[in-house]
Amino acid sequence: MSVVVNSRDDFTLENYRRVAMDGEPVAIGPEARRTMAEGRAAFLRMLESDRTQYIYGVTSSFGPRAKLTIPPDQQRAHGRAFGFRGNWGRGFGGGYLDERVVRGIVFARLANFVAGNSKARPVVAERLAALLDGPLPRVPLDGEVGAGEVLPMAHVLQGFRRDDLEEGEANPLMNGSPVSAALAADTAMAACHRLDHAEQIFALSVEGFGAPLDSYDDVLDDIWGDEDEASALAALRRYLEGASPDGRTSAAVPASYRVLGRVLGQAHRAVTGVEEAARVSLRSVTDNPVYVAPGEGHPLGRAFSTGGFHNAMAYPALNALAAAWADLTLLAQRHVTALCTTAAGAAATGLEPALGGLVEEARAAAMPTLLPAAVNDAQDDVSSPTFGAYRRQARAAECLDGALAVLAAEASQALLLAGRQPARPLQDLLAGVRAHFPPVDGSPRDLGTHVGDLAAALARSAATGSAPFGTSP
Amino acid sequence: MTIVVNTREDFTLANFRRVSYGGEPVRVGAQARRAMTAGAAQGPAAGPPGREPARRAWPTAPGAGFGGGYLDPAVVRGIVFARLASLVSGHAGVRPSVAGRVAALLDGPMPRVPLDGQDGPGEVFPMACVLAGLRRDDLHEPEDEALLGGAPCSAALAADAAISARNRLAHAEGICALSIEAFGAPLGAYDEALDDLWGDPHETAALRGLRRYLRGAGTAERRFHQAPVSYRIIPRVLGQAHRALAAAEKAAVVSLRSVTSDVVCAGDEVGPPSGRLVRSGGYLNGMAYPALNALSAAWADLALVAERQVTALNTAETSGLPVNLVPAGGTGNGTYAYGWAANGYVEEARAAATPALLPGVMEDPLADVLSPTFGAYRRERRAAECLDGVLAILAIVSSQALSATGRNPPQPLWPVLSFVRSVFPPIDGAAERDLSADGGRLQQALGAAARSGELAALDAGHGSAAVLWADG
């Protein structure tokens, strides 16, 4: 099926998923075509009314030469010249964005067009949407930090036909912040699944340790009074429903079991933050200059320069998520230690030492991406850091997947040794864990490879939304 | 006036401010006393069966931490106030007389609470310092636990940071607007059409804040072409700060009224508890330190953008303003070196934006996760101090640019400019001045105003801004 876009409200996370993840094409709907045609006509009327007015990139040059005005008789040629300026892509190295993300960028780019703010003809948007019908170019991960997102967009639009572009149609393609929108959306998709994995596996650990259940009691929902912590507690209770009171430890338990609801609550808050950043960013009009349709006091409409190309909500949200993953990674390590030293004793899996490195890597990845210190030129004096934040979040997530894999294996081992079954909602999960990583029985095995498979399975299901290890939650 | 607390609903940010900064006393109300009496009768006398808490050894005052300076006494008052939230509902099983005794601590001087060495399991170490003066020879066993446990420090630190942050963000908006005027940046980048086109409530708040200061700004003397990126993206960067502020305020509001005692008795707040005892991890506040981390990062980013605006104003080729912003016929280096000075504050702010995560160390197999809120609070303080430094410089340079070119900003900016010039008059080169000391005074004035709200009050027309107006 095609995703039909008629207005900015069609740029939802659900439609993003259909286009980016499921590979569906996009069609520009009749309402959007009409709005764009009207916007284009209105813009041209405004331009023709006074070709000495300042409109960045239309009556002026670009970038550091923004103050250079283009004489009226040269403005049409200036507009057409975009097609002959060659490709601006300069970044290289560091691997490449997954093609699903590049699809997501193209989708996010279209939000700029459909409400007529782009100044462009409908045919430009249709051509852009048609990029999704074929393979998309590779976008290097290194070297993409500049003012706005012109550098990565140059790669994304490598195959875009532009020899017939007209005045004002270059900037809505290249300028703005669709890359941040797509990186936030891609992260948000996986983050909610990853958080669910964490909740399931920590619940399995609670069962493996035989920790008392009162630390997840529903009375805490009210007396802590935080919606995100209440969500975390509810999820733990859901997975622990029907858990047997027998065989639980009667001694005091480590703090890492008792604070679980609070630390998972932090992760819920971070996931909500990145989802919000994605939702808002996907439907934002962010290119520069922006055209605003005729209205009161402005019968011809207005075109003016803005800072929309700088997305300031995606990278803090990605930073917060990376920090939440780092804290959960540490918590998983503490659970594994507790299971090994307190519960299962000498019969543990032997995987515990692998966690030290994962915890430290996750903590390093949680160092926040701030506004870059480097300056391109006096005009382009602040750059966008979203690419860096996206990569760090991905690294922290990878470390968490590894730690969760080890914790799942260790909890499985503890349950086997104790001769206990976990609560019913966790039994499919346990079966999945054991299918990938059978309990350790002393016979020779490449434990590292097997737990690596477990981590890879977690990462795959976070990306696709399938249940961890192919089980039904 | 005395604040009477009866339920958790009384633990608001406004009441926190009155107790902490206003020095108002607190009394435990009748409704709270009834709930506490019921809770103490059936409360967590010994913890859940089989898991009775070991009687917590009250650390010898002033607790285990030392060094790094001390918490402001106002914040210590806030911790005492926040402590009461866990008691008034009766969940903690503490007698009304004990809660009354805690409240009475606010009638005297506060003990000193060191900033170093407080990252323990929960907040036992700092609480031992806070409650050092509390008579405890007749405490029941669970009362020890309830007074030392939980997370009242995180609540108070978040509240203190949130209150200053709101004023600090208002300063940033005012000074950035002053900079926009000084530079003559086009106003389109703050147009109300962007509220909908960007569609984010925090960016809308920032855009509105800027437009409020720029109302009535002239269009005649502005540059015709688009301004450097640092001027155009400032609403989005301020929007990020609004988002961080909202998170810090939410963390404070939620934390102040939370019951975080290690062992709680589940039941109606005012009726007899059901007797179900719950031992939880309430003592680890999972929302305050991420919120403080986010504020630090927002301050660091604002500091960097402010520095870029300082550079733009100080660079004649970019701004079109007089070289070094020296008035016609004047001599000296004007504001040139302030641009360099700003670099140090920016780098320090960026260092302070390193997030506080769950500490890597563990005390013992049971205390295997520690609370990082003190570290996050200190970093936020440092990042805020550095932002105040860069904002002071941006204000100085903006004020100088307006003075050197004989311009006045629109009227809504007069209180901001008056405040700046009352501390730092424009450099006229006529007499030798200690520009370092003058700049430091403005930084300190901004820091003090963040706590007191002085500039915000002037801004709202509650002060005699015209008296401070130097060049009007």
Shape of chain A: elongated
Radius of gyration of chain A: 26 Å
**Which structural class do you get from the secondary structure elements of chain A?**
mainly alpha
The total count of helices of chain B amounts to: 19
- Main beta sheet strand tally, sense and closure of chain A: 2 strands, parallel
Per CATH, what is the topology of the largest domain in chain B? Fumarase C, Chain A, domain 2
What is the annotated CATH architecture of the largest domain in chain B? Answer: Up-down Bundle
CATH fold field value of the largest domain in chain A: Fumarase C, Chain A, domain 2
Q: How many discrete domains of chain B?
A: 2
- How many helical elements of chain A? 17
CATH superfamily of the largest domain in chain A: Fumarase/aspartase (Central domain)
> Which spans of chain B of ≥5 residues are poorly predicted at pLDDT below 50?
45-55, 462-472
Low-confidence stretches of chain A: none
Strand order of the largest sheet of chain B: 1-2
Distance from first to last alpha carbon of chain B = 40 Å
Question: What percentage of amino acids of chain A are in beta strands?
Answer: under 5%
Described by its quaternary structure, the protein is heterodimer
Number of strands of chain B: 4
Class by alpha and beta content of chain B: mainly alpha
- The CATH architecture of the largest domain in chain A is Up-down Bundle
Largest protein interface?
A-B, 88 and 88 residues
Descriptive notes:
The complex is a heterodimer of chains A (about 475) and B (about 475). With about 475 residues, chain A is mainly alpha-helical. Chain A has 2 domains: about 5-175, Fumarase C, Chain B, domain 1, CATH 1.10.275.10; about 185-275 and about 310-470, Fumarase C, Chain A, domain 2 (Up-down Bundle). Chain A is about 55% helix and about 5% strand. In chain A, strand 1, helix 1 and strand 2 (about 25-30) form a beta-alpha-beta unit. In chain A, helix 1 crosses helix 4, helix 13 runs parallel beside helix 15 (about 385-420) and helix 14 runs antiparallel to helix 15. With about 475 residues, chain B is an all-alpha fold. Chain B has 2 domains: about 5-150, Fumarase C, Chain B, domain 1, CATH 1.10.275; about 165-250 and about 290-470, Fumarase/aspartase (Central domain) (Fumarase C, Chain A, domain 2, Up-down Bundle). Chain B has 19 helices and 4 strands. A two-stranded parallel sheet of chain B has the order 1-2. A two-stranded antiparallel sheet of chain B has the order 3-4. In chain B, strand 1 (about 5), helix 1 (about 15-20) and strand 2 (about 25-30) form a beta-alpha-beta unit. In chain B, helix 7 (about 150-185) crosses helix 17 and helix 11 (about 235-255) runs antiparallel to helix 12. Chain B is elongated, with a radius of gyration of 25 Å. Chain B starts with a strand and ends with a helix. The model of chain B is unreliable at about 45-55 and about 460-470 (pLDDT under 50). The interface between A and B is large, with 88 and 88 residues.
